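Blinded run. Sample ID left blank on purpose so nobody reads anything into the name before looking at the predicted structure. Input follows.
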Amino acid sequence: MIYRILKFLIGIGIRLYYKEIKINEKKYLNTEGPLIIIANHPNTLMDAWVMGMISKKPIYYMAKATLFDSKFKLRLLRSLNMIPINRQGEGTTRGVDNTQSFEECYKRLEEGKTLVIFPEGTSYKERVLRNLKTGTARIALETEKRNEGKLNLKVVAVGLNYSQPEKFRSKILVNIDEPKAVKPYLEEYLKNPSGASKKLTENFRARLEKVLVTTQNKEEDELVEDLHKILNSKYIKQKEKGVKAEVNHLKDITESLIEINLSEPWLIQEIQSKVDGIKWRLDKMQIRADFLDRRFRSTMFFRQVLLAVMFIVLAIPVFIFGLIHNILQYLLTDWIIPKLSKDIEYYAPFAVFLGLFFYPVTYGLFTYFAVTQFHLNWVEALFYFASLPLSGIFAYWFARYLKHISYKWQYMLIMMDKKHALDDLKKERDELRKLIFSEA
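Blinded prediction complete.
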């Protein structure tokens, strides 16, 4: 009961927090029979919540035992289908027995349930797929062994691709690989448990890499992100749109860098140098990289800016209304989260969790005040209450729109006064594109 209620509430929070959630091959999560879902782990609790939201069937999670460090947390998290496990190097949490936890995993799978495991063990924001623990493979193979290979247990690999995991109104692409049975590894497991578990874990890694954008280290991850911002442009026609197009572009960049590292590794330093130079010039000009691909006609741009100014004047009252009714919760959430955790990977889940409390309570207080002071009837009160979250989202969008217009205005001034500087920058950007994509 608690699981269903929280799944519903957190699902609302996730859909409000993220602008776009795209799921590829969702049908694979509805596979009949026992199922283990393996996924990367860039966003701590949010990863588990997203998996729970997109799965129709109730799912069980393996979670680190340090989350269950009190009787209250133990009971609460257990009611949410979470199974605690003491991880190596973190000591033993009172009330948590790994033998019992593994036994529960076996039983849940034997009952035909779905178990979610993050085999990296720890959560990091970077697109670096870390070493996978062999525990997932051992659980899968041991379950099949207990049932003499007749269970037909399958494993699905899920890639959670966030555009910016911690950022409000960013995007998620969930790639899901087809389910595959673990039975082919059972015969070797009976003879050599360690060897078979390692082989299956290697298979898990290959399958996760297939559904993810992966980099080798933090420095490469930052380079890939910078290249994506510089080379990706909404003003160039693309076959795909939205988060799927963004993730495919990131994947193309990482694959190109892998090839360059193998064939011409000295080019990486040149690429990094060009990236740093372009970023510096873009910051100095105060424009976005994709503006380099915009066609410019002074009369058209002037008309667009004029219309934008007219819209801004008309929209400011709505913006102020949304700002007044949402700024307190926004700032309070932003102030509390760093006190709960310094890790950026916890920002989004804490923001959703706190938001589910602060925003409804504040909206309720605003509505109560409006009803008592202005004697609203129930229809007016309902309309007022509904307008609060909508105006809040509009206020956030409007602030970003103002920034976009400032870029457009700055771009127009540069084009009329220093067009040669933009032409030079575009030429430098195109040279960078050729270095990354040799076919360009």
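Unblinding after everyone has recorded impressions. The chain has a mean pLDDT of 94.
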